[in-house]
Amino acid sequence: RARQAFKDDLSISALPAGRLLQETFDAWSREAGLEWKVENGVLFFGPPEEIAPAKEKDAKRRADRKERDKALSALLARRVTIGGENLAIRQVAALLEPALGVSVRCDPETWHRTVRLSLEPRERPALDIVRIVQAAAPVEVWLRDGVLWFLGPTPPPFDPYAGK
User: Fold this and answer.
1) In what helix (H) or strand (E) does residue 85 lie, and over which residues does it extend?
2) Which ranges constitute the DSSP H helices of the chain?
3) 119: pLDDT confidence band, cut at 50, 70 and 90?
4) Which of the pair, 126 or 17, is modelled with greater confidence?
5) Cα separation of 139 and 149, whole Å?
6) How large is the greatest C-alpha to C-alpha distance in the chain, in angstroms?
7) pLDDT band, residue 164 (cuts 50/70/90)
8) Is the distance from CB of 100 to CB of 113 less than 8 angstroms?
9) Burial 15-28 (b: 16+ CB within 10 A, else e)
10) What are the b/e assignments for 54-88, b being 16+ CB within 10 Å?
């Protein structure tokens, strides 16, 4: 139907320069009686009954992500007093757990890292501890279902043509 709509009338009103791309797509699709979405980096136009459920799902996912980010920020703003010499990341996580009052876990890659840290035992925001860990080793921090996770960086997608 999207293809047919654009085939029937390829002219769409000109829009003023400087508009956001989202506003432009909204205006174009509204004129054509269509909706649009982005899925896996690809732009799709289609009838509202096909696109609307995906847009609602995306909006819910964005709202959930925003709530998780807000909860993580609040958690890491808490002041904690931890310290020690020659600590592995898993040991820092174990010290953070009772200080924050939540479960703190590491993925296998982070658990086995050989990086060692020394922390002066003083009160500071938990975010400072996380930043110290991140400065020593590439680690991502996520809050999922009440568990604070220290995760190794996501590997890049497999490229079958790399090195050729």
Assistant:
1) strand 79-87
2) 2-8, 21-32, 48-77, 89-100, 108-111, 126-136
3) very high
4) 126
5) 10
6) 72
7) low
8) no
9) eeeeeeeeeebeeb
10) eeeeeeeeeeeeeeeeeebeebbeeebebbeeebb
Q: Which amino acid is at 63?
A: A
Structure token digits, residue 89 = 């990341």
Nearest to 151 by CA among 103, 108, 96: 108
Q: How far apart are CA 52 and CA 46, in angstroms?
A: 9
Structure tokens at 20: 């956001």
How far is Cα 125 from Cα 76, in angstroms, rounded to an integer? 6
Task: Using alpha carbons, select from 69, 68, 90, 74 the residue that is nearest to residue 145.
Answer: 68
Residue listed under structure tokens 């840290």: 117
Mean of per-residue pLDDT scores for the chain = 84
b/e sequence 129-155, b meaning 16+ C-beta within 10 Å: bbeebeeebebebebeeeebbbbbeee
Residue range 102-116, pLDDT digits in tens? 999 998 888 888 889
Do strands 140-144 and 79-87 pair parallel, antiparallel, or not at all (unpaired)? unpaired
Kindly report the backbone phi and psi dihedral angles of residue 149, in degrees, each rounded to the nearest multiple of 5, phi listed first: -110, 135
Burial of residue 104 (number of CB atoms within 10 Å: 0-12, 13-18, 19+) = buried
The one-letter code for the residue type at 45 is F
